[in-house]
User: Fold these one by one.
Assistant:
Number 1:
Amino acid sequence: MASKHDIGWEHAKPVGGSRRTTKCKYCGKVIHGSIIRLKQHIAHISEQVEGCPHVSVEVSHSVRQHMSNTSKEKTQSKKKKQRILNSLNRENFYEIDEGDSDDEIEEVVMADFERRQMKQAMKESRPILKKVDKSIRRVEQVQASRVPRDTKLEIHIWKRKCKSLRSMIYHSSVDTTNIPKTTNYIFSLMDKVVEEVGEENVIQVTTDNEASFKAVGILLMEKRKHLFWSPCAADCIDLMFEDFGSMKQIEETLDQAKMITGLFIIA
C-alpha cells in the first residue's frame, strides 16, 4: 500500500476510506488499484489507464519525471542489495520455518557462528601444530634409537645416535596460569616428565635458580640417585649482572650510558 506521503495524493483523494480506490482531482475519474495507477493516469504513461483530459502539461510532466526518478532509485537499490547478497557466503543463510522459536533460531545461528570460529582458530593454529607434531616425531625417533647397552658395538652406535640427534626437542607444556608454583607441584610435573622420557635416559636436569626450583632439584636427586640437577648457567650470569648493576658506582655509569645509547638492560 502506498505511503500517505506519496506525491500521488496531491492529485487525488481516497474513495470510501480505502486508499486502493482513488478519485482524480482534475477530471473526477475513479480509479481502482494502487496509487501508481492514478499517477499513470495523471502522467499519461500507461495504455492500461486512460490519461486525464483536464490535467495541465506542467503537472503531467512533473508526475512523469517523479515516477521516472523513483524507478531509477528502486533499480539502483535492487542492484545494491544484489551486490551485497552476492558478496555473502551462502553458509551465512539459514532456512527458518515459521514454527521455529526465537531460542531455536538463536541456537542455530550461534552453533554456526561457533563452528566458523572454530575453523578459523584451527586454521591459525596449524603452524604451531606442525611444529609440535615435528617435535613429537623427533622424540619418537630418539626413543626408537635407544638400544640395549650390552655390547661395545651397541654402545658405539648409541653414541653416534646421540651426536646426530642432540639438538633441542620440545617435549610438552603445561598451563599453570592459576596454579600456585609450589615445590611439590613443580616436582610432580618434572618427575612425570622424567618418568615419561625414561629415568635411564635422563642424566641432567637444568632449571632456573628460584628457591622452589632448587628444592625440586634436590628432591629429584634424592628420588633418582643417578640423576644430576644443576641451575641454569645463563640465569646465574643474569643474576650476577643484576647484582653488579645494583652497585652504586656501576649503577651511575649504566644510567649515563643509557642516556647516550638508549641501552636498557633487562635483568
Number 2:
Amino acid sequence: MNARIPDTFWTTQEELLLFGGACLLGIPAGILFDIWRILRRMWKHPAVLVAVEDVLWILSAGLLLLCYADTFAKGVFRGYYAIGCGIGFVLYECTLGNLLTGFVTGFLRLLGTPVQELCAGFASICRKGAGSFVNSTKKDKKEKEIAQKRLQKPMKWVYNKTRTQKEREHIWQRQND
C-alpha cells in the first residue's frame, strides 16, 4: 500500500518559477529576432525570403520553448510557457531590442564602409571568376547540344516501318480478293 506515487504536479511556487523562466526565455527569442531584423536592414530581401525568415524564427522560438519544457518542466509543456515567452519577448523588444538593433545596425554600416573598400578588389576578382564560370557552362551547354544532334537515333528504314491497323486491314483485303 505504500507504493511511491510519481511526482506529476507542481506547487504554486514552482509554477511561478517556471512562468518567470519562460518570461526570461523571451530574451533569447528577442535576440534571435533582432539578428533577423539587423540582416534585413543591412541587405534588402525579397518578400519571399522575409517570409521564410519569419517561419524560421517561429520554428526556432518553438524549439526554444520545447527545450525549456523538456529541461526544466520534466517534459510537460504548458500554455503559460508560451504566454510567458511572449511577454518576455515583447518586454525585451520594447526596452532593449529597439535600442540595440539601431545601434548594431549603425555600427555595422560604419564598419562595413571601410571593409567594403578594402574588399573591393577581392569582390571584382570573384565577379570575374563567376563570369568565366557562367561562360564556361554556356559553352558546355552548346557543346552538349552539338553532341546530341550527332547522336540522334537513325531514321527507320522502310522495311522496319510498323504499319497501322488501317494499312494492315487494307493489305489483308487485297490478299483475299
